[in-house]
Input
Amino acid sequence: MRLNYPTNIKIVKLPCSGRVDILHLMKAMEEGADGVFVAGCLEGDCHYQAGNLRAKKRVAYVKEILDKIGVGGERVAMYNLSAGQGPRFAEIAREMTEKIKALGPSPIRIAKRKAAGRPTTEEAA
Amino acid sequence: MIIAKPKPIEEIIELVKDLKSVLVAGCDGCVTVCEAGGMKEAQVLASALRMYFRQQGKDARVDETSLTRQCDRPYIAQLDDQIEKYDAVVSLACGAGVQFLAERFSKKPIFPGVNTCFIGVTEQKGEWTERCQACGDCILATTGGICPIARCSKRMANGPCGGSSSGKCEISKETACGWHLIYERLKELGQLDRFERPNDPKNWATSRDGGPRKIIKEVSQV
Output
């Protein structure tokens, strides 16, 4: 289909969104990701029955933690789409990128770069 | 097992926010099974605290570990050579574990990271319910294997009371009447005559009324 989606998105492939752990999301944010979204199958269509529903709960759990520590829960999100919905994936990738760009860089990344004496491009500008 | 639930993270942040180094210590025992304080929960909490400190512009060190059991000295002794590196420890063990750490490392603040709730069972994944209050004088043999101390809201030795309705307790329609359960179970066992012999008033001296408790099994001592 040769669809375009933003190049800033790094894809981590997993056999099922049910494999996504709370810790995976936490670590990604801790490492300085500006946002993370989980792309699971459509609800009711999980090959392993409930993997995507489990992922949904874990995303909600991480959102709560991020809100409480001041990082902002809106930086993680759960999306549901089927493997046949390439255009929808590209749309979600753009949607999430725009949302995160509006939020600005992650406070963790800003603090990390500041600590290392390298302010983010957004800050320098 | 002992059932606990994680303390709200804001409560833990309040305890450690001014520190420079914190160890989050999980316990591989009961709290791991009830998903409140094992290695996984220690990693999640430590990660959250690191992020909190980082965005506050503080260069604090937060490490995580998990001990086989925090209620046995040989296991907590594993922290002997690293405890000095930290300003405080957040223990995710039950109240017993927190206190045992505090006892061993008397100069180090030890904070609880979970609320210890009750002795209970796993109903299904993610759901735990109370079964025992450790009263120290088990009467399950006479009550059909259902504990009126833990399962009756009033801890009545002889029930049910007038608040029992359609098998539910007056405190909530979600809560089964302990004595209704006992009646049904004794009926199943053909022991309903048990109700003709009331239980004696309970001797609470074996429970908390006797002060902090201690058990000595001489044959096990060295």
Observations:
- Residues 64 and 73 of chain A are 6 Å apart (CA to CA).
- Residues 17-124 of chain A form one domain.
- Chain A is about 45% helix and 10% strand.
